[in-house]
Design a protein that fits this description.
Elements: E1 2-3, H1 5-10, H2 15-22, E2 28-29, H3 30-39, H4 43-52, H5 56-77, H6 83-96, H7 102-133, H8 137-158
Antiparallel strand pairs: 1-2
Helix pairs in contact: 3-4, 4-8, 5-6, 5-7, 5-8, 6-7, 7-8
């Protein structure tokens, strides 16, 4: 998939992201662009782009993977909060759902996607909190983000 300035504008890319992209002087293949973003420590930009290029199934898989990377950190900090783990399980169920009932599928998909998004957001917040608390936390947080981004790149490659 080629990423163009037009595509980025249609997706409401931020001004700084547009400025970063313009240094490539033209269209850029997504995988190459994502690797360049990671190399430049533009993890937020890479994540923003990945999720805008994914199918719903890829997006849910990506959210599950991201949440799993920091679930243990979150559960150590909030041992009684089982919502992220439950959300991950609902998202997994959504990926396995095989029904012909379109209405039931749509309702389940909406619930599972919301749950996965909650899990990813909660887990990311926990990772950020834990990252500031540990000595090597900045490196750990960077490694987690890069691992998640590389998983997203693999999902995009599979979809080609």
């Amino acid at each position: 998939m080629l990423i163009t300035e037009k595509f980025l504008k249609e997706q409401s890319a931020c001004m700084n992201g547009m400025k970063w992209f313009k240094r490539y002087d033209g269209d850029c293949e997504i995988i190459s662009l994502l690797h360049a973003l990671i190399a430049d420590n533009k993890h937020d930009y890479a994540n923003w782009l990945i999720v805008r290029c994914m199918s719903k199934k890829q997006y849910v898989s990506y959210a599950i993977f991201a949440a799993e990377q920091v679930l243990d950190i979150y559960e150590r900090q909030y041992p009684d909060d089982k919502r992220p783990r439950a959300a991950i399980e609902k998202a997994r169920e959504y990926l396995q759902l095989k029904t012909q009932d379109a209405a039931a599928y749509a309702a389940y998909a909406a619930t599972a996607a919301t749950a996965a998004a909650y899990a990813a957001n909660a887990a990311d917040a926990a990772a950020d909190a834990a990252a500031y608390a540990a000595n090597a936390a900045a490196d750990d947080r960077k490694a987690i983000r890069e691992r998640v981004l590389r998983y997203g790149i693999e999902l995009l490659k599979e979809g080609e």
